[in-house]
Amino acid sequence: MSQQSTSQNRISSKLAIEYPDFDTLPEAVRKKFEGLPTKVNFFKMMGYSAGTFIPIIDLTNAIFKDLTLSDYHKELFVLMVGAHERADYEWEQHVSISRAAGVNDDQFVAIAENRLEDAAVFNERERVFLRFGKTILREGKAPAVLFKHALEHFNVQELADAMIVIGYYRMISGFIQTFNLPIDPQEDGNWVKG
């Protein structure tokens, strides 16, 4: 590579990192990866963080299978984080999953346009929930009055789950966007609890 092309590459806004070779990773990581039913690009790139790979996969599975929060409400937050973080990967990855969970097209549009208070699209319970999540995204926490208002519609376990969903998707959004991962959306929405 010439000096000029090396310099050009160094200052380019484009990033292309090859996926890690899982054959070179610790056996437990390799087995966990091989056992995944769906090997999305995020999971592939997570191999670079071998020490967190298994806990992140386990957390992902818990978020998809073990929350007290409904899939529908979880997906509202995933979409909200995706829109807030301008994370095309997360948004596209969750279109079919969100649809399978019950999110309708008007709600997708309202979330994308940050119209979370739109009473024609969201009922009161949903608006309070989205306000709770948006405040956490913007300010890092929900004030006590808003938390208590959300508790009129959701129990503590559901709201705790909701906060974990926000934190998880915000964290992986930064990872996905920094690595500039190509979108590989789920076509069938098969990741919902059902």
Give a topology summary.
Blueprint: H1 3-11, H2 27-34, H3 41-45, H4 50-65, H5 71-84, H6 88-93, H7 95-101, H8 105-112, H9 124-139, H10 144-151, H11 156-178
Shape: globular
CATH topology of the largest domain: AhpD-like
Helix % is 55-70%
CATH architecture of the largest domain: Up-down Bundle
Element order, helices and strands? HHHHHHHHHHH
Task: Kindly provide the radius of gyration, computed on alpha-carbon positions and rounded to a whole number of angstroms.
Answer: 19 Å
Fraction of residues in β-strands: under 5%
Task: Describe what you observe in this structure.
It is a single chain. Helix content is 62%, strand content 0%. It is mainly α. The protein folds into two domains: 21-66, no CATH class; 70-178, AhpD-like (Up-down Bundle). The model has no long low-confidence stretch (mean pLDDT 92).
In short:
The chain is mainly α and 194 residues long. The chain has helices spanning 3-11, 27-34, 41-45, 50-65, 71-84, 88-93, 95-101, 105-112, 124-139, 144-151, 156-178.
Structure characteristics:
mainly alpha; about 190 residues; globular; AhpD-like; 11 helices; 2 domains
